[in-house]
Amino acid sequence: MEDWALIRRLHGSEGISQAEIARRLGLSRNTVAKAVKSSGPPQYERARPTESAWSRVEPSVRALLAAYPSMPTTVIAERIGWRGGRSWLSENVARVRPEYAPADPADRLVHLPGEQVQCDLMFPGHLVPDHAGVLRSFPVLVMVATYSRFIAAVMLPSRITGDLLAGMWQLISTPFGAVPRTLLWDNEAGIGRGGRLVSGVPGFCGTLATKLVQAPPYDPETKGVVERANGYLRSSFLPGRTFSSPADFNDQLTQWLSTANARTHRVTRHRPVDVLAEDRAAMGPLPPVCPTVGTSVATRLGRDYYVAFGGSSYSAHPDAIGRLITVTADLHRIGVLCENTVVADHPRLWGTGGLLTDPAHLAAAKAQRAHYNTIRRDSDGSVPVEVEVADLGAYDTAFGTGEVA
After folding, report:
1. Structure pTM?
2. Per residue in 100-145, pLDDT tens?
3. Cα dist. 205→114, 168, 198 in Å?
4. Which sign, positive or negative, has the C-alpha torsion 174, 178, 180, 183?
5. Which strand (E) or helix (H) includes residue 255?
6. What sign has the CA pseudo-torsion 118, 123, 127, 131?
7. Sequence-separated (6 or more) residues with CB below 8 Å from residue 284
8. Angle at alpha carbon of residue 255, lines to 253 and 259, rounded to 5°
């Protein structure tokens, strides 16, 4: 633009030749000649765009996405007869697909007093030693009242149904002290999956007169209250702590929760321990009869007089060998019943590979083996077996073939 104006001024006003102007300005003679002959300053003209492959198929792609927003790109390519590069088509389809995605509105949640307690399992990592001193990551049951944001938690030895129900009852009875109208769980295997609750869970909920609701799969937002509590435990409770046993973990956790529930909540602007009373008033009362919790298994006691549970073995009285027994386990004890008689009672081992033997059981087994070895043997060393001999005269009497007196 500046060169054009200078050329026009030098040639028109001062009468300088085109050759001299070209020499002075260091331009070619053709450039100077074009500037002299032009009637206006030079302007940039964008080249006419050529039609791209995408512009030819874009209307067809948009028509398919309008009818089927989630149609895969591979199906779209087949429907429009695409023969070009698939990655290039995928990039363009991904660019326009959000325009046809249906809206997903989020409702504003309003939590009512006593309405719901959200439940979840949090795994702290390998921080707690088991019975053998091996560090393990035992599950921590976390329950949060959605209205008061009161947090209750306890570490469990496993995630089987009996332990989950025992942990829930422990937290509901204390510290909540009341039963919420609903318990919200995700699709935990020990609770149920696919809308079906495992055996024992319906009876537990029936005794408590509450309803258990399962969140949809892959939707953690449904139980966001307890998920945030899990993050709070990981960021504020676990760092810098060491634990000597699961009992020590639960003691430290209980002490820390008493402080955490007394702090002002960031969202509600209230202390959960203060609002818990309002939550309890809207909840149902505790049942007059405790629900059935823990695990119960019926089996026969083998010759080694040990029962296996949770990867560990526990001795039972050898008098029950070969008889039907019932093994019961809660969070703290393992018991064995045989015809309503207690034949074993042990503290529960956390972890696997453990072995607990009652000295009384060991002594009884030793005495029984000694008694067995003192049984009179024949000369060849075999144990005589008494066999009942049938009275063959009974057949003569029955068929009338006996001797006649």
Report:
1. 0.72
2. 988 777 777 889 999 999 999 999 999 999 999 999 999 999 999 9
3. 16, 11, 12
4. positive
5. helix 246-260
6. positive
7. 114, 178, 179, 180, 181, 208, 209, 210
8. 110
